[in-house]
Amino acid sequence: MVTERRAELMKKKKKEALDMRLTALYMRLSVDNNIEGEADSIAHQREILKSYAEEQGLGNLTEYIDQGISGTTAADRPSFQQMIKDVEAGKIGTILCKDLSRLFRNYLESGHYLEDFFPKHNVRVVAVTNHYDSTKDDDSDQAALTPIIAVFNQLYSRDVSKKIKVIRKELDQEGKPVGTKPPFGYKWNPDGSGRWVPDEEAAPTVRRIFTLFAGGTSMAEIARTLTEEGVLTPLDLSHMRGGSKDHEQEEPGHWNYSSVKAILDRPEYSGELINFRRRRVSYKDHRMLWNDKDEWSHIPGAHPAIVDEETYKKVRDIRDSKRKISTLGIDPSPLVGKVFCGDCGRSMTHVRSRNMKQKDYWICLGYRNSKSETRCTQHYITDDALMQAVLDDLRRVTLETREKQNEGLKDRIETAKRRAALKDEINEATNRLQKIQNVLSDLYEDKVGGIIPADIFTSLSTRYQQEMKTLNEKLKGLKDELSACGNPADEVGELMASSESGMVKKLTKEIVDAYIEKIWVKDDQEKKGRTVRVAYKSTGDTEVPKWQETA
Fold first, then answer.
1. Tell me, what DSSP letter sits at residue 542?
2. pLDDT digits (tens, 9 = 90+) for 263-279
3. Under DSSP, is residue 390 helix (H, G, I), strand (E, B) or coil?
4. Which CATH superfamily hosts domain 2-166?
């Protein structure tokens, strides 16, 4: 009796706990809301779901909204994923949606969640306008129609995807952008024409960046100037206008080399529109892939230019000249990726010269990309000076290595000579054993043939057998010693050859990658210059100092 009452109380407590769980109102508006229409707006969905919850006496309402996101994949919807986590945590007891297409437009995902995941977590699912309720009997007409509804939702997504492709082609033919967001400096024309016009707040910044660069100012210096003046970055402006904050930057108001470069490399600021740079894999898979450049659509004069033709052309000439250097196969420096600041630890960047009068140089990124008063110093050093310092040190290390190799070379040659002598002794002993075996065979035949008496045969046989025993023991010792001698003579010859030709004449990318781990450039306050330290990779049994310092 007590056991039954305890079980009944446990069941009651469990039911009360379940009743306290949240009722999730899931709403989704596709990125293609123009096709879906006003009937599927978030406000309309909310109205339907709240009305149903009130009629059914459902409380503890909480909302999960995915706006501007397709329903073909669950993984791409942040609010849906949060709802699933809350289901797994036992927080949600009921999920309400306007119709099943709000939850899924993928037949396989629909089956997984409705038939497996939600029942396993004791969650009720209601699609109001489909009259679907997961608590109803499985043999009802509603249950039989659910898979069919899921299939039609998926077919609808495929049909919508085709319609969107047609619409985008039509927009392109009309000279209009097919993307959803104008680049920094532009905004959608308020007249609803679907074209871009200059953004009065951001366009002057774009124009200034082009003008400064055309006048000879480096991208790093432009970024530093804009940062110091507190000019709004593209991300700042987007956040200020209520845009997504998924990619919050560490330092608001901080411009860097990459953000300036991205603006200078966009042809849109000359008035040219480029459509179809990227495409989705499929209506199910929303990953974006780059199209080949010959598939891009170029439309000159599609919108007002922010940058005048002369300035834009000058910037293009400067940028293209830099790209030509790289296409000719000329590496900016074989040290790229190896150089670090010896004070702050950040990598150092290689800066190419603009003309023959200037020299390539290196500076610390902790100085270049920071606006803080406590930022690192420049650590300026020319590429020629750094290359020479590293080359001198590598030559020194190579010479020391060769000397150490030469010191051990005599011993190794002696070892090689000993190996040769051992081989001769082994051959001699082996031949003697073979002769003894032949002699014993002849003696036995002479004994059998009555040529020699039995006592003489026994005496000779005993003596030869003792010699064989001694030779076998000697052979074992000789072979053990030969095995312990190490490298053969031909390997010593190779070592001598490599040692003699080991002096490095010029730094190449291959040599740097093979031998150098890192290069550190540190400020030397006493000498008012730079100290270069090189960390070398392991070089087998050669003892190379881990750190070497050059003046």
1. B
2. 998 889 998 888 877 76
3. helix
4. Resolvase, N-terminal catalytic domain (3.40.50.1390)
